[in-house]
Specification:
Oligomer: homodimer
CATH architecture of chain A: Alpha-Beta Barrel
CATH class of chain A: Alpha Beta
CATH topology of chain A: TIM Barrel
Structural class of chain A: alpha/beta
Strand order of the largest sheet of chain A: 3-2-1-9-8-7-6-5-4
Number of strands of chain A: 9
């Protein structure tokens, strides 16, 4: 079974430390699609990262991440837009399939989630022409409602796709099973996203029972309760055949040698995804 | 300001230990509405609990809890129905305003959340005639999606109200701000529930940033990011003027003397709710 359909998000192997080490570990397994985080790229420098990507025939299923648009004042929102433009530049230089957006939650001290959502919409509307000119699609990643306050005030596919519809071309969603598996409307919304060509990425991991930590206890595929094959089938039925990107934030897995993590990922990808 | 609109869910003061101690602590503050858990009632015995309630003019905004309908086999589902009937009996004996249902998540080993939802619907349909005969409304409490796997596979108001519509009279929802505050459709669904007289309870606490524990780090009203006054206004606009029931699962608050907890609850109720 070819590993063309598999991508490694570098959060999964962040213990590798540097961009080069993580890329080499993927290549050693025969994995040629990745999704780095900005700090990994900036650690080695964008030019060098782009060279490594290009010379090794590596594809980027996404670049992580832009977003965090809400801020307590205009100055803060302005800085967020500027920073997002740099993220777009990075994504473009590495020819990433999309820039993944963790859109941001409530500004410090605020209880106005509707206001925060408006700031996200305004910020994306301002960023979009720049991203389109650079040829970088913007992928809203609806995060699990657990993160509504501090990371992303867009928490369902429906809500995110409604925003994509308002913003128009050049926007879409990153569908992470961890964030949306529980949603009673997930099937119809995945189908809707497919009809409108709004699926930009498909992230996988698993939901552990119990989940002991809200941030860093995501599971390896197969260790939890998500029907991953069923989910993939739903995604493909909607017309998306891009890679399954493994993104596992986990105290447990991030403490293991990255070769062990990747060997396990490949084995699970071949059996349960 | 009268405390008629305030109810204390006994999870908030469970360190009190016994039904009598918790009731006395509430009465001492002038609070005459409560929502006990089954173990508190069973600890003192249903007859004695009903006597304490009746002799002190206490009202129950709810009885916690029934539910947990899904099970791996027919025998397990049958036992769940029987146990729910005992919960209905208790609620009836204490004249509770409703039986709160934490409907249950995935049966052990299952990845079929749609199947679990069907088990909930089937279980409630079977329980309903018994509950109606006893005069006890069944209140589905949609739980935060964090609990979809292990506690409740109904996680939004819309999903829960759709089920109530299918089941008909004698069913409704318990709206807990902690579970639904993030929902982009919360306003329209609260209004819908009001139109159909489906609001049976209104629970309050707060969402802390950060929330360090997924189960036991709920906040005291005012310490988090939920717009409680705005939420109450939305609920009253929908036609529900029943008590605000304080339900705080918290390592922090459950470690304090219950008089201190209740004094704080009263102060916050008067200022931020």
């Amino acid at each position: 079974m070819s590993l063309e359909g598999l991508s490694i998000n570098f959060a999964t192997i962040k213990q590798g430390g540097s961009f080069g080490v993580m890329v080499d570990a993927c290549l050693k397994q025969g994995i040629t699609t990745i999704s780095p985080w900005r700090e990994h790229v900036q650690g080695v420098g964008l030019e060098e990262a782009a060279r490594i990507v290009s010379e090794n025939g590596i594809r980027l299923s996404g670049h992580c991440r832009g977003g965090f648009f809400p801020a307590i004042d205009e100055d803060g929102r302005r800085k967020a837009i500027d920073d997002n433009k740099r993220a777009v530049d990075e994504a473009a230089a590495m020819n990433a399939n999309c820039l993944v957006l963790v859109v941001g939650g409530l500004p410090k001290g605020s209880k106005d989630i509707r206001g925060a959502r408006q700031m996200v919409e305004d910020g994306m509307a301002e960023l979009l022409p720049y991203a389109k000119a650079a040829g970088v699609p913007l992928a809203i990643e609806p995060l699990h409602p657990f993160y509504a306050a501090d990371r992303a005030c867009f928490n369902t596919l429906k809500q995110s796709l409604d925003l994509c519809d308002r913003l128009g071309e050049g926007t879409g969603v990153a569908i992470d099973v961890y964030h949306v598996w529980w949603d009673p409307e997930v099937e119809e919304q995945v189908a809707r996203a497919g009809r409108n060509n709004q699926i930009l990425a498909h992230h996988i991991c698993d939901w552990l029972v119990p989940t002991t930590d809200p941030l860093n206890d995501r599971g390896m595929m197969g260790d939890g309760v998500i029907d991953l094959k069923g989910f993939r089938s739903m995604i493909e039925k909607a017309g998306f055949f891009g890679p399954q990107e493994v993104e596992i934030f986990s105290y447990n897995w991030n403490a293991k040698p990255i070769d062990e993590v990747l060997t396990t990922v490949v084995e699970r990808y071949r059996t349960v995804c």
